[in-house]
Amino acid sequence: MGVTALHSAASGMRALDEKLNVVANNLSNINTVGFKRSRVNFEDLLYQVKREPGIPNLDDEPIPHGIQVGTGVKVSGTQINFSQGSVDTTGKPYDLQIEGQGFFQVRTVHDGTEVIAYSRAGNFVRNPEGNIVLANSDGAILDPPVNVPAEATEIVVGRNGEVRARLAGSNTLTTVGQIELARFVNPEGLKQIGRNLYIANDASGASVTGTPNQDGMGAINQGQLEMSNVDPVRELIDLIQSQRAFELNSQSIKSADESLEVVTTLRR
Q: What is the model's pTM?
């Protein structure tokens, strides 16, 4: 008596603690370029079946319901929401925004191995070698590489990802590179590794690369950034609901403990 309630309420508190962690992470990244909010999915645990539903009663008629007592809840997974974030118009030539599907591809090091990572963040800069790199903590280089000559006085990026530069002393634009995007059958399966980056795995499937603004790929807008898609009002509501549910589960534990205390103090 009360033991099942203790385990169920404890599992609820553990699950809600994970949700609070996810909500807090969403809120902390509200100003992170290209950040995508996550949500927590829950599932109920196994049930103690004390009477099978549908077994015949004394009149040989099936009982319409049984006695099934749940044993709690657990987190079944976290799901990334890849809906489009708000747009910030910066006017900076190396700020790029993907309008629609797709990810920028960059080279980075993960667990000691160089990998191709994917990002919705488009805050790029030019490194000392002239290569366009992501403005994150390791300066991940764009893939395929795009090198802007040192004598370039202007850079223009088309919606199709073509990168053109105006060189000193010239009145025409010269093509210096082509940005390619990648998309996935299941982008929600991508692994988050921090630094505004994702890597592919079996859950996401292999990447499909292509030219922006073609074959279902999004278009590129120069001088704009895609900001976080976190809605602060929604996150605060989730935070309050999680706090209240946590308190209710703690109250369930208190009530179950009091019931067990009554049982243990019974006298014949």
A: 0.89
- State the Cα–Cα distance between residues 156 and 166, nearest whole angstrom: 8
Return d(Cα 103, Cα 187) in angstroms, integer. Answer: 10
Structure tokens at 94: 């190396």
Instruction: For the chain, give the number of residues.
Output: 268
C-alpha to C-alpha distance for 222 and 230, rounded to whole angstroms: 23
Question: How many whole angstroms separate alpha carbon 228 and alpha carbon 243?
Answer: 24
Helices within the chain (DSSP H only): 3-28, 232-264
Beta bridge partners of 181: 104, 210
**pLDDT one-digit tens code per residue, 27-75:** 999 999 999 999 999 999 999 999 999 898 888 889 888 999 999 999 9
- Give the separation between CA 183 and CA 123, rounded to whole angstroms: 19
| 110 and 216 Cβ atoms separated by less than 8 Å | no
Nearest to 220 by CA among 152, 138, 137, 120: 120
CA distance 188 to 36: 10
Residue 195 has pLDDT above 80, yes or no: yes
Distance CA 145, CA 131 (A): 7
What does the alpha-carbon distance between residue 200 and residue 78 come to, in Å, rounded to a whole number?
16
Side chain identity at residue 260, one-letter code: L
Identity at 137, one-letter amino acid code: S
Distance CA 178, CA 52 (A): 64
Q: Report how far residue 180's alpha carbon sits from residue 81's, in angstroms, rounded to the nearest whole number.
A: 23
Q: Which residues pair with 99 in a beta bridge?
A: 219
